[in-house]
Amino acid sequence: MLNDPIPPHVDPRKLADRGVTLEGSLPLSDLERLCDPLSDNLGTVQVKFVFERDERKAVVIHSHLDVEVKMVCQRCLELVTLPIHSESSYAVVKEGANTQSLPKGYDVLELGEDPLDLQALIEEELLLALPIVPAHHPEECQQPAGADEPEPSEDEVTRSNPFSVLAQLKRDPNV
Ligand SMILES: [Zn+2]
User: Fold this and answer.
1) Alpha carbon of 146 to ligand 1 centroid (Å)
2) How far is the CA of 25 from the centre of ligand 1 (A)?
3) What's the rounded Cα separation, in Å, for the pair 28 and 43?
């Protein structure tokens, strides 16, 4: 495991030109919104970002995120430790660019001249990777088998989508 700090803001175009891979870690407690649904904020996010230009010279970013989080099991209401792993690929485009020709499987990341808020991107990706209904593996759960499955609450189902947060990133005066 590497423990280099991950820079909060980066210029993905420069990093892609140099073919940079950023690898490091980030304290879970730095990601306040992510910690909201968690039982505690202890832990470390292992982060890897690969920046490159694809065959069409477009800037692409591949992310690999790993973290262990503690949540409340919705069956037995005891704590459950859940390994969260997330991988995504992003295509960086200019604001207002035509995104029709982008290859499938990429999330579009609109970016003007401002740096990319990498920390916010990590937080958003991990939020989407959290289970909607956290629970133990059935064999490890205190709740006897055959108990009613919990229903996801309305709040959890309607959580934010990545696009609203990307819009928010661009409005952030700190970037
Ligand atoms: Zn349980």
Assistant:
1) 13
2) 29
3) 5
- Determine the distance separating the centroid of ligand 1 and the alpha carbon of 153, expressed in angstroms: 17
CA quadruple 88, 58, 99, 6: dihedral positive or negative?
positive
Token look-up 């919705």 returns 74
pTM of structure: 0.77
Cα(131) to centroid(ligand 1), Å: 14
With a cut of 50, list the residues of the chain below it in pLDDT. Answer: 1, 156-160, 175
DSSP output for 107-147: EEEE--SSPEEHHHHHHHHHHHHS-SS----GGG-SSPTTP
d(CA 62, CA 103): 14
Q: What is the pLDDT of residue 155?
A: 52
